């Protein structure tokens, strides 16, 4: 075929692929293949269309054929890259690209493709070797620097042993100095060079380069280089020189806080750098320098006035350090803080600026208390209001344990509220999209009410807090801080639909899903109505997880771009970013939550169990990164109290690594018992590569051993109900495991069945499976003796009764509805897990062959008890739902919140807030009750 | 006091306090990665000493011959850190790099015509209106804000390579161009 004919013939295929009409692409390919049965490009494009249509098995067969032919033309390779990426077969992709480059070493494009394939796969060492080879072949500096960064990436990989790090950095160093052109030709190369010198502690060599004209010029425009320079000077111990340089920069007008820190570090260098006891001489020396610095800062502060707060704050930092080093007592510090407050009290960041210097002694000192008390506070202007807010926050921060009584906190909450309402007049002309200047007082009031709740344990203060915040939102529609507080409080109150509404109003999107979805998806099973067919929460889980797919598809392209553009400052960061999203803790917490909900509304089928088993196993091998943003939640609680974030976590714990690990252990074990996939079968059926394993040595242990590990730091993240569930699941698993292992069909039977299914579906045999060989080795187990049937462990039966009695006790105490729902949904979860664990013994033939009649009887017994408890709980929840939202209860609650019905907040507003909460509660109570009844119907038979 | 440092890809995990504000758009990750892969030195962050982000600027360098210039794509400061000259610091950083490193002739930016506050802020930084771009922010139809809401001012400030101030003009507000004619 000539090139022209070829192009013409393939055009329709490409067009169809571009338009997403994969089916017509396949038809066109088939036509081509009829004419040219060995055309490899046609096969590759067909494979691509098949992948896009999710016809994985068919695509795989073509894939193997193409790869075996070792394609060398660019169109085929490019199509295959997409195919292999789509199938998750990165190892094959690397092999293909490397093979192509090996057979055509003069082809620069192939070299680059082989390099990038390795980078995408995290094979830093191979990437380094390829780029070195490319540099020799094509004599381009760029490739030399690629090999330098590859060596650095390998050195920094967590799986690289510590001893290798230095060796690799030395290699990087050797490569950099071998470059025919100096690194300072580009800021990015220079930055990388300096980092190597920093790592190898070659400070003098680094300094010579940094002090050169061109080095200085680079540092003046590149913040990244400037930061490395600063680090190197500090490591060299050149605090004094760095301090002087920073002084010059400040005198020239630079107000970067880092420069001020350098001046301060230089000031305290005499006492900080001495290893032994600080001598009086060095103290004296320090005092002298201190005076000089104080004058320098005073000069700058005077020059800047209120235009810039760097110098006055640096002075406070100076006095703070002097106080901490014992050069003088706290009074000098307090004076400088007072000055700062006078000057910048009308800026909203003033509280945060000063908070860093308020240790317990300073905060509780009479001197500081008097300064705050003597501030002139008024509502004359927005500036005055801001000052008042800062003083209130500072005063609150300094409150002591003895100030924490229900009465005093309630009084404070009411006072903040009345000040908030008064402050509203200053912002009454602002457009609706603006925030009210007095918003923070509403936040303070809500904080105080939340504190009252933690002190008294009664729910009413939460209603007051919610009322204040809801009112605040009517004046500042866009206040995301109020919304986030409301989300937390509504969840505690058991009003999840209101929490979800506020979450949606936050308009969380893209990467924010990773950092913020914890607000509503943590333990979402508690509120999920999936069992009744309402898929709100499972959908929310899937939507929030979109970002991980986007990351997997897009980020690696930008890593490649960063290489092409030689952005060495960015490459390690892009790689880390990709990794942090790919292995995000929240991603898998949401995945776990989704699995828990999925089992409440989908039929328990081995397909689901097998699939989830494999996915959860992958998760179990990951090294997670916690990207959840908790800092975003405001905190105006006193220093002696837990932060708002901690106070408002539903059930008092957050779902971190320990929670995830615990639930993975519960589910992996149950799924493993229920599934016929053992390791050999799984390896045969797996399509893509396995994800990168965490370097944690624990992941090397055999799975059953890992599943049995219990750690106190992991259980610490569980609620007491979740702990009980875990113990129950362990006991149940221990009891049934021998029977599962004995009755599970041998691998060759499972594989034969899988092969049959594949052949039915695709007309092709299952790849790489030699059934005959398997059946010879796989039949040994049946010679073993059947394990004895042991009596049911007491815990397995008692669990359901325990849960029920806890459930019954709750309404009498002052608990919240969320707690009640938690017990109900954990019980429901156990009920489903019981079904998963006993699925295998539902097949009559299995029971008959293995003589498990006795075991099945015992299981029946457990199920019956669980059945009746599920039914009772569902009934009780329905009763509670009916009792919610009656006029009487509404009035009683609104009465209890009378203290917030002041000023513009009228009684009706309070009543309305109460009504909304109760409506939402009623709905979720009813929904969960119906869900439990439905699950009871599904699983109670048999 | 704030730390001025380069914008890092990892900042996407911590910019919520800035981006939850309605006037700041959260783009797809490819948007940020694209800027960082091309103009990392024109993207920087102001950070409080406790590590909280206060604001950031994203910029690029573009244009040909005498139109070669630095451009401010996004400039934003978290609500609690406003009125602290943070915007001025970040803008002057971008000007410095556009001038010394990229050797641009000017720096420019687009702003909604009805955003009087921003326009006067930029005027305070030395920018002036170069032209008015019709329907830059899309056609919104007849609304209360009228033309001023959908039109943008292209504001410019000359750098040292343009000592004759050829990149600016006095009557910029009267020069109206269509959105299609600008990059």
Automatic annotation (TrEMBL), chain A:
InterPro entries reported for this sequence: NAA25_NatB_aux_su, TPR-like_helical_dom_sf
Domain of life: Eukaryota
PANTHER family the UniProt entry points to: N-ALPHA-ACETYLTRANSFERASE 25, NATB AUXILIARY SUBUNIT (PTHR22767:SF3), N-TERMINAL ACETYLTRANSFERASE-RELATED (PTHR22767)
Protein name per Swiss-Prot or TrEMBL: Uncharacterized protein
Family: Belongs to the MDM20/NAA25 family.
Gene Ontology annotations for the cellular component aspect, listed alphabetically: NatB complex
UniProtKB/TrEMBL annotation, chain B:
Occurrences of domain N-acetyltransferase (ranges): 2-160
Pfam families documented for this protein: Acetyltransf_1 (PF00583)
A molecular function GO annotation: protein-N-terminal amino-acid acetyltransferase activity
Keywords linked to the UniProt accession: Acyltransferase, Transferase
GO CC, alphabetical: NatB complex
Protein name per the record: N-acetyltransferase domain-containing protein
Source organism of the structure: Pisolithus tinctorius Marx 270
């Amino acid at each position: 075929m000539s090139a022209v004919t070829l192009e013409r013939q393939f055009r329709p295929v490409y067009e169809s692929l571009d338009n997403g009409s994969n089916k017509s692409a396949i038809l066109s390919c088939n036509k081509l293949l009829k004419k040219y049965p060995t055309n490899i490009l046609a096969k590759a494009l067909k494979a691509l269309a098949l992948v896009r249509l999710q016809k994985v098995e068919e695509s795989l067969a073509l894939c193997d054929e193409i790869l075996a032919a070792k394609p060398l033309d660019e169109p085929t390779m490019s199509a295959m890259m997409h195919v292999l990426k789509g199938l998750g077969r990165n190892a094959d992709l690397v092999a293909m690209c490397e093979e192509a480059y090996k057979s055509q070493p003069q082809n620069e494009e192939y070299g680059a493709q082989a390099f990038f394939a390795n980078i995408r796969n995290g094979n830093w060492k191979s990437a380094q070797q390829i780029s070195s080879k490319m540099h020799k072949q094509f004599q381009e500096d760029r490739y030399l620097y690629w090999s330098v960064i590859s060596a650095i990436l390998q050195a920094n990989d967590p799986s690289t042993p510590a001893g290798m790090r230095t060796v690799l950095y030395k290699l990087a160093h050797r490569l950099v100095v071998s470059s025919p052109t100096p690194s300072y030709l580009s800021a990015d190369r220079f930055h990388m060079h300096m980092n190597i010198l920093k790592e190898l502690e070659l400070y003098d060599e680094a300094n010579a380069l940094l002090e050169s004209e061109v080095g200085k010029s680079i540092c003046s425009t590149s913040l990244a280089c400037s930061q490395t320079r600063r680090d190197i000077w500090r490591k060299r111990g050149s605090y004094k020189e760095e301090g002087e340089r920073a002084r010059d920069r400040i005198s020239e007008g630079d107000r970067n806080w880092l420069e001020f820190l350098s001046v301060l570090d230089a000031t305290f260098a005499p006492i900080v750098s001495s290893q032994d006891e600080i001598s009086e001489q060095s103290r004296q020396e320090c005092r002298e320098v201190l005076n000089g610095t104080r004058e320098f800062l005073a000069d700058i502060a005077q020059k800047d006035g209120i235009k810039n707060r760097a110098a006055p704050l640096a002075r406070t930092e100076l006095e703070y350090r002097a106080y901490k080093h014992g050069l003088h007592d706290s009074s000098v510090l307090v004076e400088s803080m007072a000055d700062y407050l006078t000057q910048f009290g009308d800026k909203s960041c003033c509280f945060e600026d000063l908070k860093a210097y308020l240790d317990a002694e300073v905060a509780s000192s009479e001197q500081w208390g008097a300064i705050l008390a003597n501030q002139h506070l008024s509502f004359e202007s927005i500036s005055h209001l801001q000052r008042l807010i800062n003083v209130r926050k500072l005063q609150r921060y300094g409150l002591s344990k003895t100030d924490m009584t229900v009465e005093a906190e309630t009084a404070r909450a009411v006072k903040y509220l009345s000040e908030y309402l008064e402050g509203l007049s200053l912002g009454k002309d602002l457009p609706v999209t603006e925030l009210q200047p007095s918003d923070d007082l509403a936040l303070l009031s809500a904080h105080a009410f939340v504190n009252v709740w933690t002190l008294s344990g009664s729910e009413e203060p939460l209603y007051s807090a919610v009322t204040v915040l809801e009112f605040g939102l009517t004046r500042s529609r866009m206040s995301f801080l109020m919304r986030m507080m409301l989300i937390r409080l509504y969840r505690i109150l058991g009003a999840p639909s209101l929490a979800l509404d506020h979450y949606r109003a936050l308009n969380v999107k893209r990467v924010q899903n990773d950092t913020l979805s914890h607000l509503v998806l943590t333990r979402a099973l508690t509120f999920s109505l999936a069992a009744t067919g309402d898929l709100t929460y499972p959908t929310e889980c899937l939507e929030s997880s979109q970002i991980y797919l986007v990351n997997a598809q897009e980020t690696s392209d930008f890593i490649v771009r960063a290489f092409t553009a030689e952005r060495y400052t960015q490459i390690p960061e892009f790689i880390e970013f990709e990794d942090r999203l790919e292995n995000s803790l929240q991603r898998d917490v949401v995945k776990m939550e989704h699995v828990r909900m999925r089992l409440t509304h989908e039929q328990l089928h081995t397909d689901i169990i097998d699939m989830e088993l494999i996915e959860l196993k992958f998760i179990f091998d990951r090294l997670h990164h916690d990207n959840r943003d908790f800092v975003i939640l405001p905190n105006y609680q006193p220093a002696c109290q837990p932060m708002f974030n901690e106070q408002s976590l539903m059930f008092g714990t957050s779902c971190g690594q320990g929670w995830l690990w615990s639930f993975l252990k519960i589910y992996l074990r149950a799924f493993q018992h229920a599934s016929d996939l053992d390791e050999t079968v799984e390896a045969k059926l797996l399509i893509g590569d396995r994800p990168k394993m965490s370097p944690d040595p624990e992941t090397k242990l055999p799975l059953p051993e890992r599943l049995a590990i219990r750690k106190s730091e992991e259980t610490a993240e569980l609620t007491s109900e979740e702990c009980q569930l875990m113990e129950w699941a362990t006991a149940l698993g221990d009891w049934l495991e021998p029977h599962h292992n004995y009755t599970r069909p041998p691998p060759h039977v499972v594989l034969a069945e899988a092969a049959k299914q594949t052949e039915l579906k695709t007309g092709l045999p299952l790849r790489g499976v030699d059934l005959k060989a398997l059946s010879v080795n796989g039949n040994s187990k049946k010679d073993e003796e059947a394990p004895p049937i042991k009596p049911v462990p007491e815990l397995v039966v008692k669990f359901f009764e325990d849960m029920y009695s806890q459930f019954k006790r709750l309404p009498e105490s002052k608990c919240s509805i969320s707690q009640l729902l938690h017990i109900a949904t954990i019980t429901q979860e156990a009920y489903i897990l019981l079904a998963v664990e006993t699925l295998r013994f539902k097949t009559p033939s299995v029971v008959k062959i293995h003589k498990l009649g006795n075991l099945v009887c015992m299981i029946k017994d457990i199920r019956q008890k669980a059945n009746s408890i599920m039914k009772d709980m569902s009934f009780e929840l329905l009763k509670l739902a009916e009792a919610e939202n009656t006029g009487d209860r509404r009035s009683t609650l609104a009465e209890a919140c009378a203290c917030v019905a002041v000023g513009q907040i009228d009684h009706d507003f309070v009543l309305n807030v109460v009504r909304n909460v109760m409506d939402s509660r009623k709905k979720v109570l009813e929904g969960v009750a119906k869900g439990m009844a439905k699950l009871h119907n599904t699983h109670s038979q048999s | 006091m704030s730390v001025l440092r380069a914008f890092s890809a990892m900042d996407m995990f911590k910019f919520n306090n800035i981006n939850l504000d309605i006037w700041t758009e959260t783009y797809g990750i490819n948007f940020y990665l694209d800027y960082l892969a091309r103009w990392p030195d024109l993207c920087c962050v102001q950070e409080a000493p406790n590590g909280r982000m206060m604001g950031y600027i994203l910029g690029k360098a573009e244009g040909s011959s005498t139109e070669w210039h630095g451009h401010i794509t996004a400039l934003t400061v978290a609500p609690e850190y406003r009125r602290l000259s943070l915007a001025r610091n970040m803008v002057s950083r971008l000007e410095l790099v556009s001038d010394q490193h990229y050797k641009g002739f000017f720096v420019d930016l687009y702003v909604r015509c009805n955003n009087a506050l921003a326009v006067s802020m930029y005027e305070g930084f030395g920018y002036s209106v170069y032209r008015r771009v019709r329907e830059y922010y899309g056609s919104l139809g007849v609304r209360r804000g009228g033309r001023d809401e959908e039109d943008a001012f292209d504001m410019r400030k000359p750098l040292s390579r343009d000592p004759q101030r050829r990149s600016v003009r006095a009557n910029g507000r009267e020069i109206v161009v269509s959105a299609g004619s600008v990059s």
